[in-house]
Design brief:
5 helices, 4-stranded antiparallel sheet, alpha+beta, about 210 residues, 5-stranded antiparallel sheet, 2 domains
């Protein structure tokens, strides 16, 4: 399948989604990899993890140019080697997503709703947040909260963030797609972020731009 979506979601911000259907060898032969990339790829012991990594490269190179390279800082935040874009990356199950912007901070999270997220809700939901008790909507509502907080965590450089204490998603009515507001309060920030979420085929994707 490869490239599933590549569109501008707002001014100077592009979203790309890749559906992973290719075998390892096909993906490997599709992308340009530097010596550093090759070494990092071989560090992954799990084949699926290698395929995920290659799908990120394939998607990025379709969205930008063939020699685009990703580097990571000490907290595993990704950057482009030439600093041409701010970038955020997420992958889950069979999909990979990338959010790019020349001038804005970006954060994205993609999750396949396969787990019983109710079991860990107490670890990331705080008493300022409202989650529906409607049985047919609660799982999706919790996943949107989780993905939104992951996206905020990424846009805030993964620094001084506790999901329950420092991140709050303002109450919203659950739908298949919509805008929500995330709040970050810690020693470094006291800010609100406008976010957008989408649900499709048992996946949730949430992104924010600042």
């Amino acid at each position: 399948m490869g490239l599933l979506l590549h569109k501008t979601v707002e001014e100077d911000c592009r979203l790309g989604i890749w559906k992973i259907t290719e075998a390892y060898d096909k993906l490997f032969n599709t992308v340009f990899l530097s010596e550093t990339d090759l070494i990092r790829l071989q560090e992954f012991k799990n084949l699926n993890r290698k395929i995920e990594s290659l799908s990120v490269r394939a998607l990025l190179q379709r969205m930008t140019e063939p020699h685009a390279r990703i580097i990571y800082n000490a907290s595993r935040k990704p950057f482009l080697a030439d600093h041409s874009y701010n970038i955020s990356i997420s992958h889950s199950h069979k999909f990979t997503s990338i959010l790019l912007s020349n001038s804005k901070l970006v954060g994205i999270d993609l999750e396949y709703m396969s787990h019983n997220i109710e079991r860990i809700a107490h670890k990331f939901i705080n008493d300022r947040e409202v989650v529906t008790f409607e049985k047919d909507k609660r799982k999706e509502h919790l996943y949107v909260h989780w993905c939104a907080k992951e996206a905020l965590y990424k846009i805030c450089d993964k620094v001084d963030i506790n999901f329950q204490k420092n991140l709050t998603i303002k109450p919203f009515e659950m739908a298949q797609e919509g805008d929500i507001t995330g709040v970050v309060r810690n020693n470094l920030r006291n800010e609100e972020y406008r976010m957008h979420y989408m649900l499709a085929n048992n996946y949730v994707i949430v992104y924010c731009v600042k």
